[in-house]
């Protein structure tokens, strides 16, 4: 189950870095704390993106993309 969360997180990190944004800048655009963004990006923490976060990330104020961009094209098999 963690694989789907890791996938979405990796997409968020990729999009943030492509824009040259710091964690603080992304947090500001999303109205979230930098520590929450850091916890999401740190796979050892329990923080995870949820559908509301993905909707915010996909908004025109942040990454201006489809929420589907944070999901794989096919289901990730369970281990």
TrEMBL record:
Protein's UniProt name: HTH cro/C1-type domain-containing protein
A single GO molecular function term of this UniProt record: DNA binding
Domain HTH cro/C1-type: 12-70
The species this protein was found in: termite gut metagenome
Any matching Pfam family: HTH_3
């Amino acid at each position: 189950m963690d694989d789907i969360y890791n996938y979405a997180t990796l997409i968020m990190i990729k999009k943030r870095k492509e824009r040259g944004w710091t964690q603080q800048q992304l947090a500001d655009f999303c109205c979230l704390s930098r520590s929450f963004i850091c916890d999401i990006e740190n796979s050892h923490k329990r923080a995870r993106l949820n559908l509301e976060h993905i909707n915010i990330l996909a908004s025109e104020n942040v990454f201006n993309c489809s929420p589907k961009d944070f999901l794989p094209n096919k289901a990730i098999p369970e281990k």
